[in-house]
Amino acid sequence: MNDTILVTGACGQIGTELVLALRKIYKNVIASDLKEPIGELKDTGEFVRLDVLYKNGLNDCVKRFKVTQIYHLAAVLSATGERNPEMAWRINMKGLRNILDVCVKNGIAKLFFPSTIAVFGPTTPRVNTPQFTVMEPNTIYGISKQAGERWCDWYFQKKGLDVRSLRYPGLISYKTKAGGGTTDYAVDIFFEAVEKKQYTCFLKADTVLPMMYMPDAIRGTIELMEAPSQKISTRSGYNFAGFSFSPAELATVIQTQMPEFAISYAPDFRQQIAESWPQSIDDAVARQDWSWKPEYSLTDMSEDMLRNIAAMHTSV
Ligand code: SER
Predict the structure, then answer these.
(1) Residue 2: its pLDDT value, please?
(2) Going by fewer Cβ within 10 Å, which terminus of the chain is more open, N or C?
(3) If you measure from the C-alpha of residue 100 to the centroid of ligand 1, how many angstroms do you get, rounded to a whole number?
(4) Is there a shared CATH topology between the 4-168+214-239 domain and the 171-210+242-315 domain?
(5) pLDDT tens-digit profile of 168-212?
(6) Model pTM?
(7) How far is the CA of 79 from the centre of ligand 1 (A)?
(8) Which of 76, 77, 185 for a ligand 1 pocket mutation test, highest count of atoms within 8 Å of Cβ?
(9) Using a 6 Å cutoff on CB, does residue 139 contact ligand 1?
(10) Which helix (H) or strand (E) holds 247?
(11) What is the rounded distance in angstroms from the CA atom of residue 129 to the CA atom of residue 120?
(12) Would you list the domain boundaries of the chain?
């Protein structure tokens, strides 16, 4: 297809896989980040070093490559955000505002903004959290993403910018590790299972959180962006669900494939963050508007993760 796509934060957990998926569909997909790409990401297309805090650099890049769509993934996640609130607010908020302005200035056709389950807070109903409900996030990450959702909606209403957004649950993948999130244990556990046959979890055994396997997240993101505009009924962030589980439940699933695997628990400050988030998400609006449907079950995901991580270790 003829669009030229810019992806910020392209070297992150979502970016590395999303850029490759987009490059299978679009001829021109420009990856951008503060750090250099490696491997397939580097070998398959254009890379531009970009800091989302510098609007002029963003603007120059969009003009130079005649960018028509932006996926703005650059952000600081929940745990890192609590350790460095000032930095998280600056990158998540100023970065988004720069992108929104550059979009309007350059007549960008579509913008993708990743939101999160962290936009919900302790006063939100935690089971089957609805699309529209109480939202009082209590992490800087959640506050910045909720404000970001409101900015996106404002730019749609006032400036006609075609913004689309998903509230990602914890994303599980083996290609690039997550970094600085509260749901990261669900990635780390697989690497440690393969490498050490044991894992010490930073959340309590019964902490249930919504999660999704990365292939579903990538497919859902592209499906949302390709849906006809009139089908998009919310411009702030769609609830987006895969499956939910606790660390103990995940360990049991891993043990069916690796009986010797052992888990222990040493909860830290991330426990409090996890307890402020939903346990499960009602994504009926996404299902209805643009036919969202996840494919992977918890067991499918677990088998695929263990198989791929084991293969990566034997090929090194
Ligand atoms: N995975 C994110 C985090 O844990 C939530 O969106 O911060």
Answers:
(1) 84
(2) C
(3) 23
(4) no
(5) 999 999 999 888 999 999 999 999 999 999 999 999 999 999 999
(6) 0.97
(7) 8
(8) 77
(9) no
(10) helix 247-257
(11) 9
(12) 4-168+214-239, 171-210+242-315
